[in-house]
Design goal:
Length: 408
C-alpha cells in the first residue's frame, strides 16, 4: 500500500504577514543545515539550489529568522554568494554576526555590503582583522569620518595610494585624521608634504623629522647624467625637471643675473624692512621656487616654511629673523622673551640639514604641478587662488591680497 503525501495548497498570493510556526522554523533550520554541510556530503550545485530556496524564504521571513541563519553561516568557510548578499545587506543586527566575526568573506561580498548597506555596516567592515585595498577604497568613497577614523586605526587595513590620496585630501576638513595618518606605514613623502600645510605645529615637526629624506643616493646614481643633459643643452623637459629635483644647487643663478639684487642674501636684507607682493615674487625666483610656492610659504600662519626656505637656500639663521620681521610678526612677548612661534621656527631651522630641507622645498614646488595626483593637487589648491600660475603678476598680486595680508 503506497503512502499518500500530505497535499500542498495551491499557490496563491502570499498573506501580508505569514505566521511563523514550527514548520517554517524547522524548514529554515533544515535548509541552513544543508547549506552548511561539508563538500564531502553535498556538491556545489546542491548547495546552490538549497541556498536559492532559503533565500526565497528569508526574503519574506522575519529578521529573527534571518539572524539565526546568519549566525549559522558565520561558522561556514564558504557560503553561497546570493545568500550572503541578502544577509549582509539586511539590517545591522542580521548582518552583524557575519561582519563582526572572522567569517571568511570575499572582497566582492564586502564591497557590495559597503556600497549597498548603511554606515553601521561600514563601521563593522572597517574593524575586521584584515581589510584589503579594494575594500578600503569602497569604505572611504562613502565619505564618512567615523568609518575613516576606524580604518586609520586598524593595522590590518591596507591603504592603496588612491585611498591615501583621498584621506589626505579629506584631512583638510577633518583634522582628527592627521595623527592617525602620520602613524600609517603606507604614508609617503608626497602625501606628507601636502598634509603639512594644514597640520598643527607638532604634526609638522613629526612630518619633517620622518619624511625629510636625503637625495644623496639619487645624486650619486645620476651624477654622470648631468654632463650628458648639458651637452644636449637641457632640451629634454622631462630630464630637466627630474634633474632639477635631484641637483644640489637650490638658488636660481639665471634669476640672480636678471634681478635688481646682487644675491638672495641682499634681497632678504631688504625684506626685513617690509615685504611686498613684488618682493615675495623676487625672493621666490632667486630661491629657485615658483612664486605660487613662495606665496604659500610667506602666507603660512606658523613659520616652519620660512625655516625650510632659509636652510634649503643656504641662508644664515639671521635670515629667518629678518623675514619674520619683514612679515611684521612679533619677535618678543610682553615679558621680553622670544615668542613661542619664532622660537619654534628657529628650532626647525637648526634641526634640518640643508639637503633634507631642499627635498621638502622641492616637494612643495611639485605640489602645484602634475607631479602629484589630481586629488592632492585639488586639496592643496582648494580655497587658495594664489596657487594659480596662469594669471598675470597684477592679477596674482590682487588675489594674494584677498587671500590674506602678508603681515598677518
Amino acid at each position: 500500500m503506497t503512502e499518500i503525501s500530505p497535499r500542498l495548497p495551491e499557490s496563491g498570493p502570499a498573506p501580508d504577514r505569514a505566521p511563523s510556526g514550527r514548520a517554517r522554523t524547522a524548514l529554515i533550520k533544515r535548509l541552513a543545515d544543508v547549506v552548511c554541510l561539508p563538500s564531502s556530503r553535498v556538491n556545489a550545485f546542491e548547495r546552490s539550489m538549497t541556498a536559492d530556496v532559503l533565500v526565497e524564504m528569508l526574503r519574506e521571513g522575519t529578521p529573527a529568522e534571518r539572524m539565526r541563519v546568519a549566525r549559522r553561516l558565520g561558522m561556514l568557510t564558504e557560503a553561497p554568494a546570493r545568500l550572503l548578499r541578502l544577509l549582509l545587506r539586511d539590517e545591522i543586527e542580521v548582518a552583524r554576526p557575519l561582519l563582526e566575526e572572522d567569517t571568511p568573506l570575499s572582497d566582492t561580498a564586502l564591497i557590495d555590503c559597503a556600497t549597498q548597506a548603511g554606515p553601521e555596516h561600514r563601521m563593522l567592515i572597517a574593524r575586521r582583522r584584515h581589510v584589503s585595498e579594494m575594500v578600503c577604497e569602497a569604505l572611504i568613497s562613502a565619505s564618512e569620518p567615523q568609518v575613516v577614523d576606524i580604518l586609520l586605526g586598524n593595522e590590518g587595513a591596507d591603504f592603496s595610494a588612491d585611498a591615501l590620496d583621498a584621506v589626505v585630501a579629506a584631512s583638510k576638513q577633518y583634522a582628527q585624521f592627521i595623527p592617525s595618518l602620520l602613524r600609517r606605514a603606507e604614508l609617503r613623502p608626497a602625501h606628507a608634504y601636502v598634509l603639512f600645510w594644514w597640520s598643527a605645529p607638532e604634526s609638522r615637526r613629526q612630518i619633517l623629522t620622518r619624511f625629510a629624506v636625503s637625495r644623496e643616493v639619487l645624486q650619486e646614481a645620476v651624477s654622470d647624467v648631468f654632463p650628458m643633459a648639458a651637452e644636449e643643452n637641457w632640451q629634454d623637459p622631462l630630464v630637466r625637471k627630474a634633474l632639477q629635483f635631484i641637483e644640489r644647487r637650490q638658488r636660481n643663478r639665471a634669476a640672480i643675473a636678471r634681478s635688481p639684487y646682487a644675491s638672495l642674501d641682499e634681497a632678504v636684507a631688504d625684506a626685513q624692512n617690509g615685504l611686498s607682493h613684488e618682493l615675495v615674487r623676487e625672493l621666490s625666483f632667486l630661491a629657485g621656487i615658483k612664486p605660487t610656492t613662495g606665496a604659500k610659504i610667506f602666507t603660512d600662519p606658523y613659520g616652519e616654511p620660512l625655516a625650510i626656505l632659509c636652510k634649503a637656500t643656504g641662508l644664515p639663521k639671521s635670515a629667518v629673523v629678518a623675514l619674520w620681521r619683514g612679515l611684521r610678526r612679533p619677535e618678543a612677548d610682553s615679558s621680553g622673551e622670544m615668542t613661542a612661534a619664532l622660537e619654534r621656527t628657529l628650532i626647525i631651522y637648526d634641526m634640518m640639514a640643508v639637503d633634507r630641507a631642499q627635498t621638502v622645498l622641492r616637494y612643495w614646488n611639485w605640489s602645484l604641478s602634475s607631479a602629484l595626483t589630481p586629488a592632492l593637487v585639488r586639496a592643496i589648491r582648494e580655497g587658495d587662488d594664489s596657487a594659480l600660475d596662469e594669471y598675470s603678476p597684477p592679477q596674482r598680486a590682487a588675489m594674494l591680497a584677498l587671500a590674506g595680508d602678508l603681515g598677518g
